[in-house]
Amino acid sequence: MASKQRKRRLARLAPLLLSSAPMLYRFVNCELDARLYQLRRDGTPVAIEPRVFDVLLYLLHQRDRVVSKDELLGKWMSSSTHGLFSLTIASLDCPPVL
What we know:
By secondary structure, the protein is α+β, with helices and mostly antiparallel strands.
């Protein structure tokens, strides 16, 4: 089951990963490594939900513009995950991950 989810996630992110976008982003004391699918703070991996990682990566790729909540919901929403994803988006208002 986890393998199916990972394949779907990678398929959704493939256009971003295959683009000329950087694979490693550094901000404050964090690094987001798209190739390793890992967020690190002060060099130590941070455990985050895969969907949160996907949203962070998407926002980094779109950093030159404002991304609306509706756009994020439209990109990742399905009927079975709408509530969970809304909570994920809401959690981005709080910076404890970073």
